[in-house]
Amino acid sequence: MTTASRPRQVFILQLFVTGASPRSARAISNIKRICDRHLPGRYELSVVDLYQQPGMAAGNDIVASPTLLKRLPEPVRRIVGDLSEEAKVIVSLDLTFDGARAGEAPDD
Q1: Model pTM?
Q2: Angle CA(42)–CA(91)–CA(9) in degrees, nearest 5?
Q3: pLDDT of 24-50, one tens digit each?
Q4: How far is CA 97 from CA 51, 74, 81, 83, in A?
């Protein structure tokens, strides 16, 4: 299968935050901006407030907040922090393929 005919994968992401703190708000804003830019129409993002759902922390091995969990495509990845360093988030989530951004079609 060539790169051009490869189906575009949907990224399944969960962002774990603690309340409406400035750090939580920055993380939410940053990941939405990154996904809209690099994965338009190809991501599902759920935000979990650990104050409202504390059991979700242990069940997902979350030890710090905010934490972004990439469930799909595999491998599962975790990023801790407010996600303000876009280049590091892109690399950590493996949002590139064949040298192109995940949201762009590769060159023929």
Answers
A1: 0.81
A2: 25
A3: 999 999 999 999 999 999 999 999 999
A4: 37, 14, 25, 21
